[in-house]
Each structure stands twice: as structure tokens, then as C-alpha cells.
Amino acid sequence: MVDALRVTATSSRGLTSLRAANRRLIVDRLQRQGEISRAALARHTGLSGTTVSSLIAELEAEGLVAETGADDRGTGRTGRPARLLRFVPPRTLVAGLELGHASIRVAVSDLAGQVKVEQAIDFDVDDAGPGALDRAAELLGDAIDAGGIGWQDIGRLVLGIPGYVDPQSGTVVSGRMRNWAHLVPAEILTAKTGLPTTTENDADLSAVGEQMFGAAKGLQDVVYVKVSSGIGAGLVLGGRLHRAAEGGTGEIGHVQVSESGSICTCGNRGCLETIASVPQAIEVLREVHADALSAADLDRLTRAGDRATVRVLTDMGREIGRAVADLCNLLAPQAVVFGGDIDEALEPLVDAVRRSVERYTQPRTAARVRIVRTSLGHRAGVLGAVATAIDSHPLLVG
After folding, report:
1. N or C: which end of the chain has fewer CB within 10 A?
2. Integer Cα distance of 32 and 333 in angstroms
3. Residues 121, 139: contact at Cβ < 8 Å?
4. What is the pLDDT of residues 209-237, one digit of tens each?
5. Rounded Cα gap, residues 31 and 186, in angstroms
6. What CATH number does domain 93-206 carry, 3.30.420.40, 3.40.50.720, 3.10.520.10, 3.30.300.160?
7. Exposed (0-12), middle (13-18) or buried (19+): which is 144, by Cβ within 10 Å?
8. What 8-state DSSP symbol labels residue 376?
9. Annotated domain spans of the chain
């Protein structure tokens, strides 16, 4: 009897999960399409007409779907025209927060991905530790007030940080953020804001942001490479963010490029980021530009056409490009998007990456992959946080 109950419960959970997945498919298609008929939904999602009708009725009852009128677009079919449907963004909103090493950015969006309010401030996140979360909560409150939004309208919050977060416990376990070891940021923010919160890696969220809103919009297989104090990569595969069971994916900065190289923060020797990160570029340039202190200086010097700066960035891009080429041979992504702490300085770096990828990947792979700069700039991470919050919102997952 106990075994029979266990089988029944397992089957029930499986059906519930399947229905939630089917519901998400329909909502996703409605969001992307704008207006669409039930029959077209069935064709695009592969669901039966009965399943589509049942889920549409459920979504209509919740006010998430509405009919917009008859389909008069000349399909060539006889008989009564189909009724078109559209997604109706509910008043429930989501929020995204991204903590950089020296900045905090927040955005509040509806479930259709329309950003209602966005703010950013400079802040020394690394040294502040838990104090940065206090300031992040304050900034979220400021944005909510500026947008005339109520806290009760926000259903979910996603936080991005430049470090590795254990996916089981939510604990910060590695990264360059000083005074952050062993913190559980999601728990702290939930206590401060009352919002259900999850924490993600910033490069992962930037990959989602570019795939949903930016340079890789609509593509299914995307790599985002963040060039910052380290080098990290976010992977969107099959249209979904790739997370390993234990986390820690995309650590491209820790690919070994020299057995006798410098000691890395991870404890190994000769990692890519020991020769190709923003701090390394600045250190090299100080031989000829003693006043070069920041990523903004790299952008300024690149804009001025400084020969030494362009050379350093080109050398960086060549080394990063070899690691990216290996990644392309393994994953064959449609696009590799570059972003991070630099803007103008990305141009010579990405040009060099492109040449390395052409040289070191299979010709068929090299011909298909696009190597591009971010189109979202420093907004990629916070927009990825918003997209991730939408994707996990209870109204959309059932």
C-alpha cells in the first residue's frame, strides 16, 4: 500500500511538473510572438490542441492572456477565422540587482521584460561585504519609490555577484570579492526586503541578458565572456542557462596557458587571467603610462589611438581567443559575446579574439560562430537578472 501511494505521489508530481513546463512554453511563445492563434501555438510548441486550449483557459482566468480579435492575416484557410491571443503583463513585477566590484545596479521589470525603472551607483562592493547588501536594498527601495511602485507588486528578486556561489547553500565560496567569504546574500536580502531572492554569478546573468535582450537575442547557444578583474564565461545552451549540479561553470580565466606562469588567486600557476585580465593590462601599461589606473583609462587611451594600449589589448585578445577557440570546438555556439569592465578597449581585444578563433577552430565552426561586443554594455548583468526572475516567477511556472 505504501509503495502504491509512493508511485501515485511521484506520478502526480511528474504531471504537475509537465503541466508547468507546458505552461511556460506557451507563455514564452506568447511573449515572443506578440499575437498568435491557438492553432499556431500548438504548431510552435508541439503541444496538442487540447492541451493548448486547457492552458489558455487557465491563463485567461488569471488575466495573463486575452483575445485581441479575429486573425485576418490571410492564411488561405476557409471557415471561421481563428482568434488571436496576446500575453497580458500582470501588475506583478520582478527586480534584478547586480553587484560589480565597484558598482551596484538595479532594475524593476514587468513579466513581459519591459523595464519600469533602472538605477546605478558607484560603490566599493568588495571591501563593504555585508554593507554592500544594505546599500543594494536601499537602492532597490529608491528605484521602487522613483517608479511609483509598491513593494507588494514585486514577486521575485535575482541578485548577481562577481563570484562563485554554491548552488545548494547559496553561500559565496570563491571569487575576488574581499570580505564576502561564507556570506549567504540571498538570505540577507530576503530578510531586508521581504522578497524571495536567489543569487547567481554575474557572467551567467550577462549571458542571459545578451541572449534575451542584446547582441545574441533569439539565439539558442551563446557564450558570454566577461573581461574584468578576472575572466569568466556564462553559457546559454539550448536556450537555457547552463548550470552544473555543483556550480562553477564557465571558469575560462583558469585555463592554464603557462606551466611556469604567475601564481593565480585560485592557487594554480599560469592561468589565463594572470596574463589577460584588466588589472594585468593596466600593470603592463604603467611602463609607458604611469597614470593608467583603471578600466576607464584603457578606454580613454584606446579612444585616443594609443599604440601601446592597442598592442596590449591585442595580445590579451589573442590569448583569450585561443581559450575561446577551444570552447567553440567543444560547444559550437552561435555567438560569443564580450563585455565586462571595458568599453572602447573591447574593440581591439575582440578583433584579436576573432582572428584566434578563425585560426584555432575547425573551419566549419569558425564560419558559423559570431564573435561580437556586447550591445547592452554594463546593463547586461542586471537585465539578465530580470530575465531570470521572470523565468522563475510563480505566475509563469504554475
Report:
1. N
2. 22
3. yes
4. 999 999 999 999 999 999 999 999 999 99
5. 28
6. 3.30.420.40
7. buried
8. S
9. 2-87, 93-206, 218-375
